[in-house]
Amino acid sequence: MFLYQLFNVFFVASKKEEDSKYDLSLYKRGDLLEVPRTLFTHFGIYLGDNRVAHLIPDILPVISKNKSAIAKMVTNNRLLLGVITKVASVRVDSVADFAYGSEILINHMDKVCSHHPLDGDEVARRAEKLLGSVTYSLLWYNCEHYVMYCRYGMAISYQTYQVELLASFLHNSTEDCVQQDERLFDCAVWYRNHAVSGLCDANDSFTNAPHLIHHLDGSLTASREKRL
């Protein structure tokens, strides 16, 4: 009994220390939060009162009906198995559980997306309305599609376009493929900015290749001139 109480005190103290890592005064209702998670960036919408709504793959609801266990922070193993089985949900977690120990970017997508963000209350209302189980798709419906719809009214994923851009790069000139589609242009800007700032996976050989960054800069300059 004593050991159980000691463990419980330790767990509560650790939880408070983890929560205190994040200054909640920095976040406003409707903010788009962004953190690195496994191979991709993870996104969520801040609802207020230390609550973040986010779409996250999770295998646990398939193999367990223990609501207490399911409500706990989704580990990387649960997440990756959820991706494989295409099982996910839009759920609400604390800022600390959402961030999983990572630093949080706030409204970074406002600099990338060509659409202006909606009012914060409307963003949060959309996020709350979509809570519940969903069928997950890495390409067609992931956490980025969810937050982009909530904040900008367009369900797109720049990470998905990033893959498309790199695939096109292997077969065509980047300038040609960028000029084919407005959304792909936005993706190229996003990818170039993330490559320079080091937000992409450090092990990604494309990210750190100077020739690719140089090529993208030239292509983006040419594409901008045509768009003016």
List the helices and strands and how they pair.
Blueprint: H1 2-19, E1 32-37, E2 40-48, E3 51-57, H2 60-63, H3 67-71, H4 76-85, E4 87-93, H5 95-99, E5 105-106, H6 120-129, E6 132-135, H7 143-152, H8 158-169, H9 174-180, H10 182-197, H11 210-227
Antiparallel strand pairs: 1-2, 1-5, 2-3, 3-4, 4-6
Helix pairs in contact: 6-7, 8-10, 9-10, 9-11, 10-11
Which strand-content bin applies to the residues? 15-25%
Count of discrete alpha- or pi-helical segments spanning 4 or more residues: 11
Q: Any idea what the shape is?
A: globular
**How are helices and strands ordered from N to C?**
HEEEHHHEHEHEHHHHH
| Helix fraction bin | 40-55%
Radius of gyration from the alpha-carbon trace, in angstroms: 19 Å
Structural write-up:
This protein is α+β, with helices and mostly antiparallel strands and 228 residues long. The chain contains eleven helices and six strands. A six-stranded antiparallel β-sheet has the order 5-1-2-3-4-6.
